[in-house]
Design goal:
Layout: H1 4-8, E1 10-12, E2 18-20, E3 44-49, E4 60-64, E5 67-71, E6 84-93, E7 98-106, E8 109-114, E9 117-122, E10 131-139, E11 143-152, E12 157-162, E13 179-183, E14 188-192, E15 201-210, E16 213-220, E17 224-227, E18 235-244, E19 249-254, E20 258-259, E21 276-279, E22 294-298, E23 309-315, E24 323-329, E25 338-341, E26 349-357, E27 370-373, E28 387-390, E29 395-398, E30 406-415, E31 421-426, E32 430-433, E33 441-450, E34 460-465, E35 472-478, E36 484-491, E37 500-505, E38 514-516, E39 521-525, E40 529-535, E41 546-551, E42 565-566, E43 577-583, E44 588-593, E45 600-613, E46 616-628, E47 633-636, E48 645-654, E49 663-668, E50 685-692, E51 695-701, E52 708-715, E53 720-727, E54 737-742, E55 749-758, E56 768-774
Antiparallel strand pairs: 1-2, 3-4, 3-6, 5-12, 6-11, 7-10, 7-12, 8-9, 8-11, 13-14, 14-17, 15-16, 15-18, 18-19, 18-20, 21-22, 22-25, 23-24, 23-26, 26-27, 28-29, 29-32, 30-31, 30-33, 33-34, 35-36, 36-40, 37-38, 37-41, 39-40, 41-42, 43-44, 44-47, 45-46, 45-48, 48-49, 50-51, 51-54, 52-53, 52-55, ...
């Protein structure tokens, strides 16, 4: 039992812990030297004393990882079960420090010291009841000592100390002692580091990085890590960061780099179909000087680190085999981004692919092959076998069809020393020149062209002269005596020294039936042609209407082509006689007498307005009607009889379109207009009246809100409008319009109408007007 004197020296402090009060009667004995036992820095050193003053030589010293004891008897063999003491002591590095929420419980004497400062002092004989003391202590970074003392005076001996770290915001220290190793056999890199001294470490965050940045990261609760990096010749290292249970991240510490052997091929270059083009550039020619296509392959944004050597491969099939055609080393030309194939042939389909090779000699897979068809850039060969055959109508050229890729030919011509001009383009190995001047030598030059428009460098030449063509008739008209006069025109360079032969016939197809006498006389001569004229004296009384002429060359050869011309009548018929104009209620009745011409064909009747010019009354303006030649009257119903002054001009026209002088008549129309005024502002629109088979048909646009319509007709005798219809007057063909047919319309007069709209309340609108002429019944 503890003495009363000892117990009187204790009191409870403000924190609830038993505190030792200064007293002259309290003597603390210094502990005896402990045995030479070494424990780890995370393990308590435990010493046993056979007394409660921790004095003298300890009975035993060992290591204890956990303070949690319950002795019902002696703690050691040879020791008493009462009046003994046990001391636990731990000195360790706490890293960045921290706070700990502890609980010290047990029987009899219990004391806790941190760095020699007493935190708990329960130093009484409790028997078997015991004490339980909670609390918190905090330590800074570095090394600190924690000590627990326990004495048992009587009864059971129990002692338990727990001290888990409590929540804090202090970050752990950076892990120390990081080492890195690389196993070339397995290709695996490993790292280890010293465990952090903080007691609240939850895990470590491990990052594998290259000088360019991180490549992988994970967490571990241990102090080792491994990673298998790609064998790409780059440097890798491990960086470690401690994280406590309160998610405080400590500083990162990194180990040394290890370098992997480079056995990884670089990425496949970026080549798309749109990146492959074909150009033909001056300076890229074959051994014969002919341009060759140059295939340009754009590699995209590649860099020396991506290759640095890029190779262009070519095949004639998508599956290969591929042949190397070009290479690009970005270490030598870092700004270049193209690969060039300067050996491609024209008009071929190739498949191109590219690869990248790194400095260690690793080569990537080939890109997907891109098909490229090279253009046609070579000119076809020169034309051979050019020949010319001339006749009176043209010069016919022919040549050998090309064995190469020529698809068309350009034909140039030059007369004498003139510059050649393009005559035309042929799609076959022949050309017919009908523009050559007869008797003039023309030099022809023919070039071959391929489908791409390339023209042969050389051409074939030949000279030929079109034969002299025959003369042609250009006119056949009667003279003052009614005899046919034939006009003949012949090219100035034509050979017509043998004269002319003239024939006639009843039609163009039979024009060579009857020979005619013709004594031509030259009437006009130009640089281009000579014109002759002759009178066909034996044509009188003939029923032939067509004439042709042939030129005769000096060698007696007749021209092969001919042209038939019709005999042209230039005599106009006489004027119509007795033209009269009678005004009526429906218009004007015109009548005349026929002129009696045998070849009368039509009449031209023009209706105009009288106009006085220089004191002379004339008939001006108006439209012309074409009337059949067999009529002698005309009913002019154009416009309404409104009292206007009008005039008409009539001409007789024969079959050769010769027309007589005009005969003119003037008249004043009757005025048939209603005398009743009309109110303005009618809602009825689009009103129209037309004559139809003796009736008058009226149409107008439907009026919104109208329930009925009223139709009125002017009664001249009564001098007023008379209602002739009322109702919906629908148009069966279109709901947007209304219709009325006046079957009782009087004939032989102008008929005037009014149409009004009737609202639902019976109100009648202002009228719209329309009029139509109903001719008399013939």
């Amino acid at each position: 039992m503890i003495t009363d004197r000892f117990g009187a020296g204790l009191r409870v402090g403000a924190a609830g812990l038993a505190m030792a009060l200064p007293t002259a009667c309290l003597v603390l004995a210094a502990p005896a030297a402990e045995a030479a036992v070494t424990c780890g820095d995370t393990t308590f050193k435990r010493t046993f004393y056979a007394n409660t003053s921790f004095s003298g030589t300890p009975r035993k010293t060992d290591c204890d990882t956990t303070i949690d004891q319950n002795w019902t008897g002696a703690p050691l063999t040879g020791m008493a079960k009462n009046s003994f003491g046990v001391r636990w002591s731990l000195t360790r590095d706490f890293g960045s420090g921290g706070c700990f929420t502890y609980r010290l419980s047990g029987t009899d004497g219990l004391r806790l010291y941190v760095d020699g400062v007493r935190k708990v002092n329960k130093w009484t004989n409790t028997g078997d009841a015991g004490n339980s003391v909670p609390g918190t202590f905090c330590v800074g970074s570095g090394s600190h000592t924690v000590r627990v003392d326990h004495v048992n005076w009587t009864g059971l001996s129990r002692v338990k100390f727990t001290w888990p770290a409590s929540s804090d915001s202090k970050a752990p220290l950076a892990p120390a002692g990081i080492t890195t190793a690389y196993d070339t056999a397995t290709g695996r890199a490993s790292a280890s580091w010293k465990k952090n001294r903080e007691l609240d470490i939850a895990h470590y965050r491990v990052t594998v990085e290259t000088p360019e940045g991180g490549v992988s990261s994970w967490t571990t609760t241990g102090t080792t890590a491994s990673y298998t990096p790609p064998k790409d010749g780059r440097k890798y290292r491990f960086c470690v960061q401690a994280v406590d249970r309160w998610t405080n991240y400590g500083a990162t510490a990194c180990g040394p780099y290890v370098t992997t052997p480079d056995t990884t091929a670089p990425a496949v270059p970026d080549v798309r179909a749109s990146d492959v083009t074909v150009t033909v550039t001056s300076g890229y020619e074959g051994s014969d000087g002919t341009p060759i296509p140059r295939v340009n392959v754009w590699l995209g944004q590649v860099w020396p680190s991506d290759g640095p050597v890029f190779t262009l491969w070519r095949a004639t099939a998508a599956a290969g085999p591929f042949t190397k055609v070009a290479a690009l080393d970005l270490r030598q030309t870092p700004d270049e981004q193209y690969l060039y194939d300067e050996t491609a042939a024209e008009k071929r389909t190739y498949y191109y692919a590219a690869t990248a090779t790194d400095v260690a000699g690793n080569t990537s897979a080939r890109t997907a092959p891109v098909a490229v068809t090279t253009p046609d850039i070579g000119a076809p060969g020169a034309v051979t076998g050019l020949a010319a055959k001339a006749d009176t109508s043209a010069v016919a050229l022919s040549w050998n069809a090309s064995a190469d890729d020529a698809v068309r030919w350009q034909v140039y011509g030059a007369d004498g020393g003139a510059e050649p001009v393009l005559l035309g383009t042929a799609t076959a190995a022949a050309y017919r020149d009908t523009t050559a001047k007869p008797g003039v030598t023309r030099t022809y030059t023919v070039y071959a062209l391929d489908a791409a428009g390339h023209r042969s460098a050389t051409a074939a030449k030949i000279s030929a002269r079109r034969q002299v063509a025959p003369a042609m008739p250009v006119g056949l008209r009667p003279d003052a005596d009614g005899r046919p006069v034939l006009t003949i025109r012949v090219a100035a360079d034509n050979d017509h020294s043998g004269g002319f032969r003239v024939y006639s016939g009843t039609s163009a197809s039979t024009v060579r039936t009857n020979p005619r006498a013709c004594a031509p006389e030259e009437v006009l001569s130009t640089d281009l042609y000579v014109e002759y004229r002759c009178t066909l004296t034996d044509f009188g009384g003939s029923t032939d209407r067509y004439v042709t002429v042939f030129a005769v060359a000096g060698n007696g050869v007749l021209s092969t082509d001919f042209k038939a011309v019709a005999y042209q009548d230039t005599t106009a018929p006489a004027r119509p006689a007795a033209l009269t104009a009678t005004p009526t209620a429906w218009g004007t009745d015109l009548r005349w007498e026929a002129p009696g011409a045998a070849d009368l064909h039509t009449y031209w009747l023009r209706a105009g307005r009288p106009e006085t010019v220089d004191g002379v009354l004339t008939c001006a303006g108006g439209d012309t009607e074409v009337l059949a030649g067999g009529v002698t009257s005309f009913q002019d119903t154009a416009g309404l009889p409104d009292g206007e002054d009008r005039c008409w001009e009539l001409r007789a026209v024969d079959g050769s379109n010769n027309y007589s002088e005009a005969v003119t008549v003037h008249a004043t129309e009757q005025d048939t207009r209603p005398a009743e005024a009309t109110a303005p502002g009618s809602p009825v629109t689009g009103l129209d009246a037309v004559a139809n088979a003796g009736d008058a048909a009226l149409n107008w646009t439907a009026v919104d809100g109208a329930t009925a319509y009223r139709v009125y007709r002017w009664d001249r005798a009564a001098g007023a409008y008379t209602r002739i219809a009322e109702g919906a007057l629908v148009n069966s063909g279109n709901d947007a319009f209304r219709h009325y047919r006046d079957e009782d319309a009087p004939a032989g007069t102008a008929v005037y109408y009014r149409v009004t709209a009737v609202a639902a309340d019976g109100t009648e609108s202002a009228p719209a007007l329309a009029a139509v002429v109903i001719p008399p019944v013939s």
